Batch of 2 targets.
Target 1
Amino acid sequence: MDYEKILSPVVQEVPPSGIRKYFDIAETMQGVISLGVGEPDFPTPWEIRKAGILSLEAGKTRYTANRGLEQLRCEIAAYMSRKYDMTYDPATEVLVTVGGSEAIDMSLRALLCPGDEVIIPQPSYVCYEPLVRMIGGTPVILETTAENDFKVTPGQLLPLISPRTKALILPYPCNPTGAIMEREDLEALADVLRGTNILVISDEIYSELTFGGKSHVSIGAIDGMKERCVIVNGLSKTYSMTGWRMGYACGPAPVMKQITKIHQYAIMCAPTTAQYAAIEALRHGDDAIRTMREEYDMRRRLMVSGFNKLGLTCREPKGAFYAFPCIASTGLSSDEFCERLLYSEKVAVVPGTAFGKSGEGFVRASYCYSPEHIREALTRIGRFLQTCGG
Amino acid sequence: MNTKLLKLLSKDSRTSVADMATMLGTSEEAVAREIAEMERSGVIRGYKAVIDWDRLDEAYVSAIIELKVTPKPGLGFEDVAAKVMKYPEVESVYLMSGVYDLNVVVKGRTFQEVAKFVAKELSTIESVNSTATHFVLRRYKELDVELLGEGADERGSYLL
């Protein structure tokens, strides 16, 4: 069997995620301390788990509507209105998906013909570029910079827009940079986008995790933008529900109709148990979010201050749960830094380049860990830096 | 700041003042001042290690004793509670709602030692009507700390 011949060249050419590499090495070593994971360390709050269990006990084990349980879509619409001041019709503008990832994939599939362009800011989460490629689209990379706090500016966006541009991915709060887009930043982008026929796929999975008193603003809440946006969100990061695979998309009815069609044929519906748990989370989970956010905030300060004290410049991440310190002062590339740090002090962090070429000079460190864990990692990194002479 | 500071201390009272200041976004002086003030006013009563005695050869047993007490006119349960808590064998004393009155945690080296203490000391206190002794067989969790297993981090590092 000649597998290479039958497998799609487009798929074969997509590289595997750069994050895995170090973890594969780390898994073979003893005593490694990781700052690598991208998921909360808290278990799902008990009341939410209980709602899932109760639904199983009640025998709720069948398919739901393709779009998701009506109750859940209503809760999602209520949440969007309560938190982000956007009104969506649960019947036609909300789709429950298998994690935010599915929502992103489905949105792209609904939009793209071969050769169509999607503007993707980087450094950013690793899935956008491969997904666009696998549909036959062309990723157009917008490199954000530390000088601009890793935000997307109109000046960067404008020259990348072409007649083939179908969509802009807007991944804020941003993994891995911790950047957020504030209202005035979004208004400036909206001024550019309103005159175009470009759809914004706004990945807001970290929307509840913003710090320093700045609440998340959705681009869909900016004047004239709701009709141009698919808002992707989910319960994974917010409610510590990564394994439940609960995401959703909200957008204009004509777009959602096509997205829902793909979802219907490819997925049927999101897992039923998880949907029941999600109803409970959205109804009664606000306190749990607040508690977790306060805890993250303390860890965030500990880690950022730690990196800066070690001489690795670390901008204050205003969202998500990652610090993104600059390691250029060591004279090492991101890749070398991560590899040497892992072998010499057994600390696993992720090279910024895993999130795009523009991540060179940075590493990503997650603060989803206990303060003791973070302190130990920082101590080891400090020892490592002394051997670098940087 | 107080509640957050106390939460940090109750999780790990050995966290340095510098780290607590960083985590709370305030100065070291402010944290030190708060702690000193709370120690003075009695909000913070002490700092102790959480020890898993079962990992040592040291003989150690503890028991929960339920006391039924006749309250004294004018004094209620205060009088007997004051007597009970003076014993060095007694680790904690609580006034309870429900079918009995005082919950007393007693520690000792052997079952016999604790049993003897209950029989000779606690049950002979005037106004103590009855005692029920429950020995602890195994400690799973103590002061928020899980004592069994290492609680390995099961999180993978997949694609994120």
Target 2
Amino acid sequence: MPEAFLEKYLRLENLPTIWCAGCGLGTDMRSIVKAFDTLELDPDMTVLVSGIGCSSRMPAYVDVNTVHTTHGRAIAFATGIKLANHDLTVVVVSGDGDAAAIGGNHLIHACRRNINITLVVLNNSNYGMTSGQYSPLTPQGSVATTAPYGNVEQSWDLCDLARASGATYVARSTTFHYELITKLVTKGIEHKGFSFIEVITQCPTYFGRFNLAGSPTDMLKYQKTHSIRIERSDGTEEAITIGELYKREAREYCDHYDELIVRAKELKAEMSED
Amino acid sequence: MGDARVQLLQGNEACAEGALAAGCRFYGGYPITPSSEIAEIMAFRLPQEGGKFVQMEDEIGSIASIIGASMAGVKAFTATSGPGYSLMMENIGYACVTEIPIVIVNVMRCGPSTGQPTATGQGDLMQARWGTHSDHPAITLAAASGQEMYDLTAKAFNLSEKFRMPVTMLSDAVVGHIRERVVLHSPDEIGIVQRKLADESADEYVPMDVDDSHIPALANLGSKHHPYYTGLVHSGKGFFTSKPEEVEYFIRRLSLKVEKHKDELIDVEELGTDDCEVCLVSFGVSGRAAINIAQRMRDAGKKVGHLRLKTVWPFPDEVIKSIAAKCHTFVVPEMNLGQLKLEVERAACGEAKVIGVNNISGSMITTHEIYDVVKEFV
Amino acid sequence: MRYEIRLSGMGGQGLLLAGIIVAEAAMAQGKNVVQTASYGPESRGGASRSEVIISEKAIDYPAVIEADYLLAMTQEATDKFFHEVKPHGIALLDSTWVKEIPAGNVESTYYFPLTETAIEKFEKAIFANIIGLGIICESSKIVEPDYLIAALLDRVPKRYKEMNQVAFETGIELFTNGKIPKGVAGQAVETV
């Protein structure tokens, strides 16, 4: 018998997932819905939105209101959803190609608007769904199906990008640190504003195989040994910094718009009195 | 001054007011000539009605945001012109497949690519039908005046809600920018249509259950039924299917929604089509000159008729066929290189000659241009 | 009958507003109207124009083909549009700005310092368009003055209503009293 929170938040009838054996996405999904459970989110008022890619198949398995949109556009759809109905808790799951490449512009502008949406980018360093092409987050030098001689492009620190673009909550975890994912997603949803959470996750089928990263277990071990908690970091280590990287309070977009509505209605009333 | 509901309005203003009257409470858009006034007016007017306006980072974001808002239960639309319409195409297909009501107003400009942004054209007729990939249904209306900018925008909302699909309204730089007399019909006069919603008191909701209408009920986001929307081919509870018979049924059903209701959807304006020997066929702004020619030639005793399509998609094949049985020539004036003409030829099945009058200069097609062609065949 | 009015000059002269007022007045009088304006960078300080088409019948072609009435408030607008006026049409040129009347065969060309008069009487150049409206109203007889005044008062801010009405009536009086001289086509005028 699965645990109660899985019964509550997963569409068990749709399992097993399409994800490969050893893929990190199942673990990530469990950690995300565990956060839903921690917050006791009402599934009727929770919306999970995704784009296209392996991670974007997640809404089919999560028993809340769910939208599987087009490639790269999940955040733009979510913007419409949240603005139309502020009462909905809106969470977006996206992959590295989806969020950083084709959807990069929407990501930047959602951060800038500081709209109350939580984005979880499940970064497996490549396009898994289309069999392992390089993404903007593929490390330089790594092999991919479209980088057979090694990736010549610079990789990106998406957390830096989110912070610079105006996101007011920025955090990172790895799949190995599955309890940290739950903690960060919980805090991200609680935070009023745009929350950006990156999860470094393993794709043993493509990225791992092409780059001789070993078994899924080896890849998880790598995540463990190559990460450092932000609290213990002096910023100089060659490691994945994990934890809450950045947080600040700022006016949230929907709230701001509601104030605007009040002003517009008052002005209209004044004008009609004239 | 007189009846407050009768106003001198710019076409783009009339469009925005028509949307508001139809119950639109969300607009997501991106600035583009010659449609920008619609966004500007919605930014001003929506908050007054408690609605939301957002200027997105591009037209792809615009259409995504309005689909999202509509999924959340709020009537939503966007307005654009050719380049923006091109960017929206993928998500128009998504709205067809997820069956989400949205309205897109395309204020057409002249030419391909950036073209001539402030000049008029009618080159996006086929794009409105076939712009997004693969087989999908389309409903497209075409406005010829400020009054129709108001009326047909409102109608576009009603059709999108009823048929659960995107509806495009085509306009152009002339109709969008001229000011004309517009009667602001009330929501009661318009007759507001709301989408058929899933029964929230029922224990179960099967998203793909449909009756003879082929139009399923919709569960807005925030439903106890936990809908799953996807651009993947789906069946039953709304999840992906690859079973050939389910795939075939799903894709056919989307188009059947329109095919089965063609009589209800087709809306044409006819003058003398019963007895004409030469019939003008037009849509949108070209119809203004065309009807003038038809009327003047009829007044002079010539058997000339005029058919103007207010609904361009679905195409009124049957109407064309019945006129083709009586007339010997169709003359099709349009501000493109013959897109409507192709459809008239297809529907006429060789029963009548089809002659095009094409103006792609960026200026409006004139009565003289049309007359010079029509007189050759009367 | 189709009547075409073209109001031309530069941005800031209130030509768009004048066009809307004429269109609203004609509409209130039960006529069909189409009003258009030039768009783009032109409306930001450069050349500007606004057109009104008034007709008993439906208006098929919503743009000026050959103007029945031209108001030109700059030399540039005069040079550009004077030759697009019907021979039996009317042109009203603001002699404050228009120093040379092009050669042409426009039957009635009125030539009067609209802007200077506005500054003299109201200390504001912006009323030139409204004085012009009064002259257009009286010289064209295409729209009843009462309808024009109603449309004008409906469109201007409360505190300027009275001044606008006076400006409009000034235009009417000037014309009625024969104070609007005719210009001669092709005549260059010495600048003061």
